[in-house]
Amino acid sequence: QVQLVESGGGLVQAGDSLRLSCATSGRTSNVYAMSWFRQAPGKEREFVAFIKWGDDSTRYADSVKGRFTISRDSAKNTMDLQMNSLKPEDMAVYYCAAKSSITASYDYWGQGTQVTVSP
Q: Mean per-residue pLDDT for 29-41?
């Protein structure tokens, strides 16, 4: 089992920055990759960013490219999401998730952290 706990959400103004963190614990040796997802009220959950633990390769949703940066600290077993130039449409509950292989669905999810962006 892998446990994930997000932190760092809050209320900011449009244009501000925020850094989310996802602390991992448990059998982290099973982790192949991790991602951030978000879900806004009344909308489906959507992919935000991905990082593969083997080589730290990354992918981003088009809506956040150039503004968000995903990273991880292997020594601390944490994964971060640096969010710059935030927009009201970025407002959502942000979730970190982990998967154990390239083909597996995301097996582990955090509880989510709220990001609120005022105009």
A: 95
